[in-house]
Write a structure and sequence with these properties.
The protein is mainly alpha-helical. It has one domain: Up-down Bundle (Four Helix Bundle (Hemerythrin (Met), subunit A)), CATH 1.20.120. The protein is built from 7 helices and no strands.
Length: 236
């Protein structure tokens, strides 16, 4: 006798719950990951265009005020700039290792590496704040008197240099603050066991953002700290 109830029942697989990592509007995890990465890369393209415009302005003004930009560079603290560069490059390494650990679902290692990344970011911001404070003490802030400038043209060039320095490094610091917040959010999720294994697209995308912010500094450092390095003392 045929069990009609059993025959009418759909296969067990039809009742299987979807993977918790898979959003309902994606067919599989690979498609979801690809869409997430594409979205992050599109966002980073807009950031590249944003900073690209600022770098273009830097090169235009540097062409107009080459000597003044070199003089302004001598007022930068190359040692602190180099230390901050090393700090950010190290943070890129810890971020990359965190992404790798997340793919292996190693929650403890992910948490340690993410916290190390955020800690290095805070070290960078602390050093940058110390630099800003000393620039304020030395009256090397935008629109300051710049008593060491000898004529109006030199003052204009030095003020332009300082305006760009505070604008571009300030925006970079703002992006760094956002990055630290994102890293801490991911760390809190990893502590609860989320976004690990097959769910690492969020960790991966935060890693891309962090590497982008670090890369921007790799350009800012030579453009502001080293442009006048061949023409006198490195700074205070």
């Amino acid at each position: 006798m045929v069990d009609h109830a059993s025959a009418a029942a759909p296969p067990a697989a039809a009742h299987a719950a979807p993977l918790p990592a898979l959003a309902h509007h994606f067919e599989d995890l690979q498609q979801q990951r690809a869409a997430g990465e594409l979205g992050m890369w599109l966002f980073l393209v807009t950031e590249i265009m944003f900073f690209g415009g600022l770098f273009l302005a830097y090169f235009v003004y540097r062409g107009w005020y080459a000597a003044e930009f070199a003089a302004g560079s001598h007022e930068m603290n190359v040692t602190l700039g180099a230390i901050n560069t090393a700090v950010l490059l190290t943070s890129s390494l810890t971020m990359a290792l965190a992404v790798h650990a997340a793919a292996q679902a190693d929650r403890r290692r992910v948490l340690m590496l993410l916290l190390a990344t955020a800690g290095l970011g805070l070290v960078f911001l602390g050093i940058k704040a110390w630099e800003y404070y000393h620039k304020y003490e030395e009256h090397l802030i935008p629109f300051a008197g710049l008593a060491f400038a000898h004529d109006r043209s030199e003052r204009e060039g030095l003020v332009t240099f300082l305006n760009l320095y505070f604008l571009m490094t300030g925006l970079h610091a703002f992006h760094m603050i956002i990055g630290i917040v994102l890293v801490l959010v991911v760390a809190a999720a990893a502590w609860r066991g989320r976004w690990l294994g097959e769910q690492t697209v969020v960790v991966h995308n935060v890693g891309l953002y962090w590497h982008f912010v670090d890369l921007v500094w790799v350009f800012l450092f030579p453009f502001f700290y080293l442009v006048g390095a061949s023409g006198g003392p490195a700074g205070h």
